[in-house]
Design a protein that fits this description.
Length: about 180
């Protein structure tokens, strides 16, 4: 199945405060579903009301620069959503305990990423990821961590062909 991709670009993301859950395995596994539910429940319990996209960073078998789309059982992931203002680490962890997942408050630093918009099913991200990593190399940069997916559409209400996912990878200059 053919999917459209937008042209890759470099973007500077600001530092921010996020709620996270770490785990491993396929997105169809109960742990992944529980993590997603816990993140949004904790966010709401801490006072957030607006909708935000879910983000997930993925690596393979503990290697932050490897990812095999065909072997999701070996994925290591960090799911995250923006934290509401004034959230504290203690409140996030306490609320996470109530919702069945270890939710943590983290503060990722500002970073430069290469990104592009993938349109279509998640299973068809291979060519989009290849285009993104090719752009990184052509730009004289190297990946500086696992790729992240920002889910702009809800897979429970959006047909697979209409899904939109921002794919991004942190980058640095050759050393």
């Amino acid at each position: 199945m053919h999917t459209d991709t937008t042209a890759p670009e470099l973007v500077d993301l600001p530092a921010r405060v996020v709620l996270t859950v770490d785990g491993a395995g396929a997105p169809e596994a109960p742990a992944f579903t529980a993590a997603v539910r816990a993140l949004f429940a904790v966010r709401a319990a801490l006072g957030a009301r607006e909708d935000v996209p879910l983000e997930g960073s993925y690596s393979q078998d503990g290697d932050p620069l490897r990812f095999d789309l065909g072997k999701p059982d070996g994925w290591h992931w960090r799911l995250l959503v923006p934290a509401p203002p004034h959230a504290t680490a203690a409140a996030a962890e306490t609320a996470g305990g109530r919702f069945g997942a270890p939710v943590h408050l983290r503060s990722p630093r500002a970073q430069r990423v290469a990104r592009l918009l993938h349109r279509g099913p998640y299973a068809d991200e291979g060519p989009s990821l290849a285009a993104l990593y090719s752009f990184v190399e052509r730009s004289g940069l190297v990946p500086a961590g696992p790729h992240t997916e920002v889910y702009l559409t809800d897979p429970s209400t959006t047909p697979p062909a209409q899904l939109r996912t921002l794919l991004q990878v942190p980058v640095s200059r050759w050393v």
